[in-house]
Amino acid sequence: RPRGGILTGALLAALLIPGRVGANPSGEGVQPYIDLLKEEQLAPLEPSKGGTQPFIDAIRRKGNPGEGVDSTGYSEAIREDLQEKEAGEERPSGSYSERLRRGMGPGRAQTGAIDAVLAGKSDLTMKRDLEGIKAAAGFRIGTVLSRDYEASGGIASRPFDEVYGGGWNLDVTVFYEFQPFHSEIFGNFGIFGSASFQHFKGTGVFSLDLPKPWAPAETFGSESRTRFDFVSFPALIGVNYRMNLFRVIRPFAMVAPSAIAYLERRSDRSSSHRGLSFGLHVSAGASIPLDGLSKSMTWDLYQDMGVKHTYLTVEYVRLTPISGDVSFLVSGIYSGLTFEF
User: Fold this and answer.
1) Cα-based torsion angle of the residue sequence 88, 89, 95, 99 in order, rounded to the nearest 10 degrees
2) Which of 140, 221, 296, 314 is the most buried (most CB within 10 A)?
3) What's the predicted TM-score (pTM) here?
4) What pLDDT is recorded for position 246?
5) Three-state secondary structure call for residue 72
6) Which residues contact 94 (CB under 8 A, 6 or more apart)?
């Protein structure tokens, strides 16, 4: 016979033979194939305390008949297993970045970005906002000065230099400058105000050098034991203009009327002298930028105090008298620092 006919006949014979596969032994009907497979290969499911036992637990118990069924979920079992492993080890402390930094080893620097810039070990650069500069402030000190103070009306018996000498004396000025116009290219125009303090010490001088009665060839000398202190407080308000030449040097010029209050005190019981004089202050000089000398200092001044530029200032000053019982004539060099905000 042909092969197709043989296979067809075998299939029909199998279906017609009564047995367990084709019919239910109880005679109630044909049993589905999947039910028969469960009955022969899987053990009956036992109910758990909380209800129907999960299918995965039944399979686990069938593979390990001697073990009980774990009532916890699979994720909880994994979590407990991880906790048991970590119990015997020291858990890492600190944030994730700190643990990474510790992993770099002791040879790696642990400084911030700003520290690296200040140390010159970074490609980054500090950026200061140099726009909107509206003011400047600073101080100056008299370095090399020539003074000629004269009292009018015959109230002085000796020249000023003979009493107080011609050496260096304390002369300090503090100032503030408001800048209604400022340009990093064209320079700035400012309204300037300052206050100064000057102090001189000297010894009184006799008008006559008296001889000693017991030794006519000798004298007592012209120096008195009386000590003198002369202090003056110049104050001025004026205008100035500071130019900008290639941002390397900034020449400036200033003019202002000046009022000088003064006081002379003596160590004896004689009365002191005080008064007020006026003069004209004119100066010219140059401001030299110091921003590039120290990056760390420049950044600290900018961050803490808002200083945008720092200058070394050197200027020639001339004060000429206008009125007053004491005429103040001063010329010389002042130097100091200027800070722009």
Assistant:
1) -170
2) 140
3) 0.59
4) 66
5) coil
6) 102
Q: Tokens at residue 243, please?
A: 């130019």
Using the 8-state DSSP alphabet, how is residue 109 labeled?
-
- At residue 195 the predicted structure's pLDDT band, cuts being 50, 70 and 90, is very high
Asked if 242 and 286 count as a contact pair (C-beta separation under 8 A), the reply is no
Secondary structure (DSSP) of 144-191: EEEEEEEESTT--SS-HHHHH-SS--EEEEEEEEEEEEEETTTEEEEE
Q: What is the DSSP letter of 65?
A: T
Q: Taking a C-beta distance cutoff of 8 angstroms, is the pair 242, 250 a contact? A: yes
Round to whole Å and give the CA distance between 158 and 27: 151
Encoding tokens for residue 279? 């003069």
Tokens 């200058």 sit on residue: 311
Distance CA 208, CA 67 (A): 128
Q: Does residue 86 or residue 221 have the better pLDDT?
A: 221
Q: Which of 135, 193, 142 is nearest to 167 (CA)?
A: 142
If DSSP codes are grouped into helix, strand and coil, which group holds residue 1? coil
CA distance 337 to 258: 21
Cβ of 310: how many Cβ atoms within 10 Å? 21
Report the amino acid identity of residue 329: L
| Both structure tokens of 169 | 């004396």
Contact yes or no for 161/146 (Cβ under 8 A)? no
Beta strands 135-151 and 273-289 are unpaired
Predicted confidence at residue 50, as pLDDT, reads 47
Pairing of strands 170-183, 326-340: unpaired
Of 252, 236, 126, nearest to 179 by C-alpha is: 252
